[in-house]
Amino acid sequence: MASFRTRLALLTSATALTAGALAPVQLAGAQPAAAASYDWVALGDSYTAGVIQAAGDTFEVPRDGCERTDQSYPQVIDRDLGGLIELTNVSCGGATIEDVTFRAQEPLGRHLPPFSEDPDYPFPPVPPQSEAVGPGTDVVTVGAAANTLGIADILRTCLELGSGSGGVGTPCRDDLADDIPAKLTKVSKDYDEMLAVLHERAPHAKILAVGYPTVIPEDTTKCRYNDLEQFGPITQGDLDWLRQDVVEPLNNAIEKSAGTLDAAGFVNLYDSTRNHSVCDAGKWVDGLYTSLPYQLAFVHPNARGHRNAADHVASAILNSIGVD
Q: Which of 1-10, 188-197, 261-270, 303-312 is least confident?
């Protein structure tokens, strides 16, 4: 199968040839541009929305607190395939699976005490993201689950407990490990419910469940203790635990839920990002900070990470609508 970049080049060439052939008619008759052929709705949390400055500029005016950025993968795909697909992007930083499915969300913006204060916080609630999906939707992408697991609180605890450890031991695992299985069970239950609701709202749509990229490397000796551009004071032992018992099982839960619905598919971002973790030189996910001391990242994909996600998600979208 041709790669997304190859297929995009072919589509672009075909579009250019068609536009050239039609140009005299368009000029003579002042014909409006043809509407996009397929309707795509992008749902998800901050790993979809972008949120951090390293993933581009927030483009909503006025801000709604969801912090969708112009280098996030939905916006990148929209620029790549804009003539073919009409995007509705309602992803929102901080969204849980329930916020996607049925609950109005109160966005956080970039308000993450004690790390950052957002001057525009609090923001008015935004509707449940599923309300953007309807009978005319052709493709739905959804990247959500980490906030249902409580990943931000887990990271905060690991930072607090690691700060007094000297980099030794597994204080975070020792404190939190017993709670993780129940949280993963809730993720699976909520995800199944979300997919059912999305399928009911858009019975003819392909639903693409987007997984999370590699955040922590398999070799955690790459991670420097107390480096705020990586994981700060989280110990190597806790990073191993977070990768093996939290992040990887989270992706597995998403993939398993997607596999229970014929209309759904799973987009694996983990394998393609194995050598681009927070602790790798060519990182596609930034650590606690992008660059000291100004840009908070709190472990989110940068523009390079979103470019990689765009390639994989766009390829899945093209497959779902039957474009070779």
A: 1-10
CA distance linking residue 155 with residue 174, whole number of Å: 14
195 lies in a domain? yes
Q: Is residue 128 part of a domain?
A: yes
Which CATH number characterizes residue 295's domain? Answer: 3.40.50.1110
User: Could you read off the pLDDT of 158-188 as tens digits, one per residue?
Assistant: 999 999 899 999 999 999 999 999 999 999 9
Grouping H, G, I as helix, E, B as strand and the rest as coil, residue 283 is coil
Q: What is the DSSP string of 72-122?
A: SHHHHHHHHHTTTEEEEE---TT--HHHHHT--B---TT-BTTTB--TT-S
Q: What is the pLDDT of residues 191-243, one digit of tens each?
A: 999 999 999 999 999 999 999 999 999 999 999 999 999 999 999 999 999 99
- Do the domain assignments include residue 20? no
Residue 311 domain flag? yes
**Hey, what are 288's tokens?**
């606690």
Owning domain of residue 169: 35-320
> Are the beta carbons of 206 and 320 closer than 8 angstroms?
yes
The single-letter DSSP state of residue 37 is: S
Are 217 and 285 in contact by the 8 Å Cβ rule? The answer is no
Question: Nearest-CA neighbor of 183 among 134, 249, 86?
Answer: 249
Q: In angstroms, rounded to a whole number, what is the distance separating the alpha carbons of residues 69 and 83? A: 21
**Total domains in the fold of the chain:** 1
* pTM (whole model) above 0.70: yes
